[in-house]
Specification:
single chain; about 280 residues; mainly beta; ten-stranded antiparallel β-sheet; six-stranded antiparallel β-sheet; 31 strands; globular
């Protein structure tokens, strides 16, 4: 079993970089650059005949990250095997980088530079790897997930009628709330499971702003429609794009930092098997 060693635990994919592993290899990160803050993309146009400038909206750039460390092994063979593990972990495809701060956070990264390895002695090497997170946000490692069926109404008039008449109706289901404890807006993913006819999601922020995602088609029993508000994608059954059939008004919803999003949904007809699931992660700059 791998034994955690001092410092902030770091994991790249399945490779733990702050442990003594089962082969007796010590993985010791010595420096991480780029995790604290990405660059900013903004423009400032000088004001004519006035002080200052006109500022454009500001956006975070992609987040380049470099990790440096030491690998110390009990043998040359173990050292070489560890180096190959490192090469494989710094992948060309999306890989989860986790840094275990007080609130553990993660980013999705890909290799963006050389993996530099320098021999120290027959048993150890130093290394430096370069990766980049296209999405600069640092996300919570905890995925929030909330689910609800379509809203249903019970109650009403009970026969035979006894005066005075009392009308009692109760609406249940159809709503949940997602939250963002971070410092930058995060974007939820919604999954609808059919049957559902022309379903509509309504998301409301605490400031009263309302957003609607309306799907103009029907979902059959067992169909799943995944709406990714960050990617602006709408995928049916994991393979087919249905983006032309979704209307996002006035825009795609997001959860503001330190805030919540109240979500409810409905459809043209009630079916107890229909289900809406919303997921999100709190996000930090």
């Amino acid at each position: 079993m791998a034994v955690q060693i001092g410092g902030t635990p770091i994991t790249l994919g399945s490779l733990q970089l702050s442990v003594v592993d089962d082969a007796g290899v010590t993985w010791l990160p010595t420096d991480v650059k780029g995790w604290s803050s990405p660059g900013v993309r903004a423009e400032f146009a000088t004001r004519q005949a006035d002080h200052g400038a006109w500022a454009s909206p500001g956006y975070l750039n992609a987040r380049p990250i470099s990790i440096e460390g030491l690998i110390a092994a009990p043998s040359t063979a173990a050292r070489d095997a560890a180096v190959e593990q490192l090469y494989a972990a710094v992948a060309l495809t999306d890989t989860v980088l986790v840094i275990e701060e007080t609130i553990p956070k993660q980013a999705i990264v890909r290799r963006s530079g050389e993996v530099l390895v320098e021999l120290v002695n027959p048993y150890s090497v130093t290394y430096s790897v370069a990766v980049t997170a296209a999405d600069p946000r640092r996300y919570s490692t905890v995925l929030q997930s909330q689910s609800t069926g379509l809203p249903s109404v019970s109650g009403g008039i009970t026969f035979p009628i006894t005066f005075p008449i009392t009308f009692t109706t109760t609406s249940t289901g159809g709503a949940f709330t997602l939250s963002n404890a971070g410092t930058i807006a995060t974007r939820p993913v919604f999954t609808m499971t059919g049957p559902a006819t022309m379903p509509v999601i309504t998301a409301t922020r605490p400031d009263g702003a309302i957003f609607q995602l309306a799907y103009s088609q029907s979902l059959g029993a067992g169909d799943t429609l995944v709406i990714d508000t960050a990617a602006h994608s709408v995928i049916l059954n994991g393979a087919v794009s249905r983006r032309p059939f979704l209307s996002a008004q006035p825009s795609w919803p997001e959860i503001l930092p330190g805030s919540t999003l109240a979500v409810r949904w409905n459809a043209s007809a009630y079916d107890p098997a229909a289900l809406l699931t919303g997921t999100c992660r709190s996000a930090w700059m």
